[in-house]
Amino acid sequence: MVFSFAAAIAIGTALLMLPMSRAGEGSAPFITALFTATSCVCVTGLATVDPATYFTPFGQAVMVGLIQVGGFGIMTMASLLALFISRRMGLRTRLTAAAETKSVGIGDVRRVLRGVFAITVTVEACVALALTLRFATDRPLPTAIWQGVFHAVSSFNNAGFALFSDNLIGYAGDPFVLIPISLAIIIGGIGFPVIMELLRRTRPRHWSLHTRMTLLMTAVLLIGGTVFMGWSEWSNPATMGGFGIGDKIDLAFFHSVQPRTAGFAAWDYGKATDETIMGTILLMFVGGGSAGTAGGLKVTTFLLLFFVIVAEVRGEPHVTAFDRRINPRVTRQALTVALLGVAAVVGATMALTEVTDLPLREVMFEATSAFGTVGLSMGITGKLNVPGQLIIIGLMFLGRLGPITLISALALRETHRHYTLPEGAPLIG
To answer: Measured on CA atoms in the order 388, 389, 394, 400, is the torsion positive or negative?
Structure first.
């Protein structure tokens, strides 16, 4: 999987370096093409140049193709990896996994692929139609169609690329643009297994533990994020202070969706309050659902860690969630992924502060956005030097493939010792 994504990035870099991809004279520099291709394939959305003016329609079409490959490929591969992992486990574990996920057949690869493809095409077509109808009101129909398709693909795949120089700031008070894009991001971000189960099982009592945890955490973050964004930016004249109440609510909801993990922006994050920046960093780090187009450490990981804390505070011997006892191996996996994610962001932030002269707040925001494959920025992406761009490139690649690769490796690796070591109790706290 790592090599396939690296190959896609290499092909995208070569295509973006063609003279026909650049709007100006000559071809795009290697580092610019590499950064853009990586951001597209990893569906991040960070860019050192303005895609609306720097690339030709051909170059923009290449970007759409790379975004679709990155989003569709990740969904497909994540789902297939989950099936593969279940297949490799013991019979009891396989039966448990099948019952938990309501799987018809663990090895039904064709059904999985058809399902992913159908969901992708349906959602993107509906969003593209809605956006085209809106854009057609003030521009030629061919332009409206292209912009509608581009932003539909970018939003469902949680990429965050826009064909406007100010991203979506020009549509800050337009619900006919913000709402369809937000819905596409949410659907793409909750994960393919959840979508399929919701289509098959309409009653909540029949939902799997994974679906319950994903939907609960998603709802909490969306509602909590909307309230938080509204509270922190309500009176800020540089963001939403000049809008009416209805538009403010739309903007707050829109910006509670974007950090998880699309990257569209309807205001300038460089002018946002410190509270908003910190809250956005936390949302970017959490991310969206597993086996979807969203990045981050995933909502189920953090909700599981919450249940671990609750169990420890209560003194309970086992971690439970929704009347289910959690396998200790799963809790260790969650802790491992979370701590390694923190290490990656902190390490990249320290490295960026060494190779650039940019403020720590902006650098941390950029590093978290890259690792979470979000694409939000405080306006420093274009200011990064070559070493800084290479760090962000590596962080985007790691953030897109690192968590799922690590989880798969941990799930497939199981070592049994034929002896038990004496217990130890180091001091904690």
So the answer is: positive
Number of domains forming the structure of the chain: 1
3 state SS of 117? helix
Domain housing 23: 2-412
Domain contains 150: yes
- How many of the other CB atoms lie within 10 Å of CB of 268? 14
**pLDDT tens, N- to C-terminus, the chain (429 residues):** 677 788 889 999 999 999 999 998 889 999 999 999 999 998 899 999 999 999 999 999 999 999 988 887 655 655 555 555 555 544 444 444 343 333 444 455 566 667 778 888 899 999 999 999 999 998 999 999 999 999 999 999 888 899 998 999 999 989 999 999 999 999 988 887 888 888 887 788 888 888 899 999 999 999 999 999 999 999 999 999 889 999 999 999 999 999 988 889 999 999 999 999 999 999 999 988 876 677 788 898 899 999 999 999 998 888 998 888 998 888 888 888 888 889 999 999 999 999 999 999 999 999 999 999 899 999 999 999 999 999 999 999 888 876 666 566 555 556 666 777 787 778 676
Token pair, residue 368, equals 């978290």
Q: Where are the beta strands (DSSP E) in 205-362?
A: 320-321, 324-325
Give me the phi and psi of 325, to 5 degrees please.
-85, 130
